[in-house]
Input
Amino acid sequence: MSIIEPIDDELAEERRLTDLLETSGERELNDELFLRILGHVPGYAEAIHDAMYQSHVLGDVDHRLKEIIRIQLARTAGDPYFAGLRSGRATAEGLTEERIDAGSADFEHSPEFSQAEKWALRYAYLMYRRPEELDRSFYDEGKLHYTEAQIMELGGLIALHYGMQVFMRTLQVGSFSRSA
Output
């Protein structure tokens, strides 16, 4: 179990997080465990949930691509919890485990991805490994494929999700069981 224990139903109700816990699954964002751990600080739980929802589910960038990026980042962070979660929406829209694996491997040479998708995957790959390469020419290349708003959407997704994934790894939450 996690280093920080998740809050129970009684504490969730006392902290007025019951509705948030119920809607997190409907919103295709995460399971209850993540929010129950964050529920020790209800304002953070709500704010982080909303930011993750905004960055992962909403916006103009294809949700399947954002799901691949999210999982690539979780694998990079060494976080089995978020790496094991899957978006039902992305799966229903045709995202496969093979495509997810390709996005976490040698995506640059994969025929699975368009040039725009390769740029987005590269963005996620480089942000924490070689951020000095995210210079003007890198972003200019991105503007060939995405609007500035979409680039900001991708950047926010990458920054927020990777940070939360590293945090969850430090709590030793472990892997998520898809059958749960």
Summary: The two ends are 15 Å apart (CA to CA). The chain has eleven helices and no strands.
